[in-house]
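Comment thread on ticket #2218

A.B. wrote:
> Attaching the input chain for the structure job we discussed in standup.
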Amino acid sequence: MELFSSAWLSALLAIILIDLVLAGDNAIVIALAARNLPSHLQKRAIVWGTVGAVVVRALMTMGVVWLLKIPGLMLVGGLGLVWIAYKLLVPADSGDEHHPMATTFWGAMKTIVIADALMGVDNVLGVAGAAHGAFDLVIIGLLISVPIVVWGSTLVLKLVERFPIIIYAGAAVLAYTAAHMVVSEPLLDSVFDASLVNRVLAHAVVIAGVLLAGRWAAQRHAHSTGSAT
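C.D. wrote:
> Ran it. Output below, let me know if you need it in another format.
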């Protein structure tokens, strides 16, 4: 594809739109993972979390042809994202040393990179298709979307501090993304492709399950904390 040709520019526009449409998920997971950090580390986590997301997605895009050959990839990624969405709702001091909401910078970074890698499958497939093999387009598109993700993460973090209910909204978005990945798994086409009811039910079960389990864990933690005092 010739540089700056009409085809090149239209492909670049498509990639940017794909990145920006899916940037909301990135912003949410970065903001939620960073919310329990000290204020002087929050901005650092947002910037480096975004960098990590870009690197992970660029590497995944390079290997997209290989990734497409892995059976069950969408299913495994979706189930992994369900766990991430649930753990984001669990209080950070619940005693789990591997908790993704850890109050350390590296704990937050681990959550951000893992969640972005899991969520990035749809993004990678879309971007790779729009780029038509031109990896320079992928890199340019990702670089252009970085400021949007950083700004979005900062905005979400500020809103979470004022309105904690947004944490549950964010977890619901991640759960929806997870359900979509599971429903899109080719191995499960016979279950979901022919039945709208099954697809809707799968989304409802995953979202409700994550929110209810997270709420129960938070209430249990509050009760145990109250009993200890």
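A.B. wrote:
> Thanks. Noting for the ticket: Residues 75 and 88 are 20 Å apart (CA to CA).
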